[in-house]
Write a structure and sequence with these properties.
By secondary structure, the chain is mostly helical. It has one domain. Helices cover 74% and strands 0% of the residues. It contains nine helices and no strands. Helix 4 packs antiparallel against helix 9 and helix 8 packs antiparallel against helix 9. It is globular and about 70 Å long. It is a multi-pass membrane protein. One of its GO terms (molecular function) is proton-transporting ATP synthase activity, rotational mechanism. It is found in: Membrane; Mitochondrion inner membrane.
C-alpha cells in the first residue's frame, strides 16, 4: 500500500519522459500568448504588470532584469504545479531535487553579491541593532545559521505542500467503491473540493516562493 501510495512521486514509475513535463508549460505559454484573443492578452499583461509593480516595491528597485527573473520563476513553478494536478503527469515541484535546484543558486547568487559588493552592510546585518555586547557572538551564529537554512526551508515548504495534496487525493481515490453508491458520491465530492483547494495551493505556493525569494534579495 505504501509503495503504491508514494509511487505517484516516482518520475520513472510510468514514463521516463516525465521530466520533460517541466519546460513544456512555459513553451506552451509562449506559443499561445500570441494566439490568444486580445482580451486574454490584455488580462495576461495586466497580471504581469501587477507582479512587476509588486516586485519593484518589495525589492526597493525598478530593475527590470531582477523583476523578470522572479516573475519567470513564479510562472515556472505555477505551471508545473498546475500540470502536476492532471492525471498521469509527474509533479516536478514535489521533488526536493527540483525545488533545491531553483532555490539554492538564486540564494547563493544573492549572498555572494551582498558580500562582494556590500560587505559592510552584510556584516552589519549579522548583528541586529541594539544587541548587547555579550550576546553578539551568539547573534552572529544564529544569523549565519538562519541564512544558511533559508533555501532549504524554501524548498521543503514548496515540496511538502505539493506532496501533501497529492497524497490526500491518492488516499481518497483508493477509498472509492462501487458497492456503496453513497460512499462513492461522498468520496467524489470530497475529491472535487480537494482538487479546487489544490489549484489554490498551486497558486499560493508559487507566489510565496517568489515573494520570499524577492525579500531575500532585497536584504
Amino acid at each position: 500500500m505504501m509503495t503504491n501510495l508514494f509511487s505517484v512521486f516516482d518520475p520513472t514509475s510510468s514514463f521516463l519522459s516525465n521530466w520533460l513535463s517541466m519546460p513544456t508549460p512555459l513553451l506552451f505559454m509562449v506559443m499561445t500568448f500570441w494566439l490568444l484573443p486580445s482580451r486574454a492578452q490584455f488580462l495576461t499583461s495586466s497580471v504581469l504588470n501587477s507582479l512587476n509593480r509588486e516586485m519593484s516595491l518589495l525589492m526597493g528597485t525598478t530593475s527590470i532584469g531582477a523583476n523578470i527573473l522572479v516573475i519567470a520563476l513564479f510562472l515556472f513553478i505555477l505551471f508545473n504545479n498546475f500540470v502536476g494536478l492532471f492525471p498521469y503527469i509527474f509533479t516536478a515541484t514535489s521533488h526536493l531535487a527540483i525545488t533545491l535546484s531553483l532555490a539554492v543558486p538564486l540564494w547563493a547568487s544573492f549572498v555572494i553579491y551582498a558580500w562582494a559588493k556590500q560587505t559592510l552592510s552584510a556584516l552589519a546585518h549579522l548583528v541586529p541593532l541594539g544587541t548587547p555586547a555579550p550576546l553578539m557572538p551568539f547573534m552572529v551564529l544564529i544569523e549565519i545559521i538562519s541564512n544558511l537554512i533559508r533555501p532549504i526551508t524554501l524548498s521543503v515548504r514548496l515540496a511538502a505542500n505539493m506532496i501533501a495534496g497529492h497524497l490526500l487525493l491518492t488516499l481518497l481515490g483508493d477509498q472509492g467503491t462501487m458497492e456503496n453508491i453513497y460512499i462513492t458520491m461522498v468520496v467524489v465530492f470530497a475529491q472535487v473540493i480537494l482538487l479546487v483547494l489544490e489549484f489554490s495551493v498551486a497558486v499560493i505556493q508559487s507566489y510565496v516562493f517568489m515573494t520570499l525569494m524577492t525579500l531575500y534579495a532585497s536584504e
